[in-house]
Design brief:
By secondary structure, this protein is α/β, with parallel strands linked by helices. The protein contains twelve helices and 13 strands. The chain is globular. The structure holds NADP nicotinamide-adenine-dinucleotide phosphate.
Length: 292
Amino acid sequence: MRIAVLGATGKTGRYLVSRLCQDGHAVVAVSRKLDRLEAIDTCATRRQADILQRDTITPALADAECVVSLAHAGLTEPLLAALPPQCRWVVLTGSVRRSTALPDPAADGVRRGEAAFRAWVAAGGHGVMLHPSMIFGAPDDRNVGRLLRFMRRWPRALPLLVPLPGGGRHTVQPIYFEDLVAAFAAAVTPSRALPLDIEIVGPEPMQYRDFVRATAAALGRRAWIVAVPLSFLSAAAGLAAAIGLKVPFTAAELRRGTEDKRFAVAPMQTLLGVHPRAFEAGVREKVARGWF
Ligand SMILES: NC(=O)c1ccc[n+]([C@@H]2O[C@H](COP(=O)([O-])OP(=O)(O)OC[C@H]3O[C@@H](n4cnc5c(N)ncnc54)[C@H](OP(=O)(O)O)[C@@H]3O)[C@@H](O)[C@H]2O)c1
């Protein structure tokens, strides 16, 4: 099948391009930037286009039978409007962030994208929207990469004290990037049996404290969790950012960390056949590859 991949130069997209080529598809990698396209697997045809520029995106997608987008869900509406008539299937990216109860413009963008996708399906389109949780593991992943770098810099002679709001008892369910790639690769086969959306998440929710401890353990270190009020930590993170100090998490991220993220993994396993690895295994793999 001829598949156009948007977001092909991204942290996950470039691995998806290689995987789809290996699976025997004719892949067109699309990016706004030529220099970023040059780093993409040569198995793919490369085209420069911007989803927001109709005169560039329409020709870039002209021969696609399937369009996969790893660009932000906020770009869904213009993307769907640019699809060629022979495109019979789309795989779009949302985010589990759509479920947050906190004020969050990025989550609003995901919800708008989801609404545009549902309206397009109601009008006769076919496809699926995959909603990843926190993605980690790629060489340039910021989520775990910056925590690893912070821990690596911390002097070995000092105990690794990690302050977390409320002691880090809220949950998160990170997905390893290669499991996400496998989910997208499975979802490109058109299937009326798929629901409109599937959450792409780690095997089970884990507390932030265990997330931090597993990250430290992958470096051969032990982390000691210190419970600190969110208000204090947010103020400290804001102050550190204002004076140019590098801290692993921003105030907004710390606030989001006080919401429990808990999702069902069974639909991903049964519908796409992907059984995601545990966070501990993924972070060990990232460290072993030296990707931080
Ligand atoms: N990282 C996470 O933890 C996380 C969690 C949940 C959901 N997600 C979503 O999952 C997807 C993949 O994540 P990622 O971290 O791999 O993404 P990423 O590295 O940020 O890549 C996003 C890609 O979108 C492309 N893009 C942006 N604006 C575009 C436009 N106007 N026209 C064409 N392409 C455009 C960029 O390509 P060029 O700059 O080369 O054009 C870039 O390659 C994203 O949609 C993200 O929102 C991420």
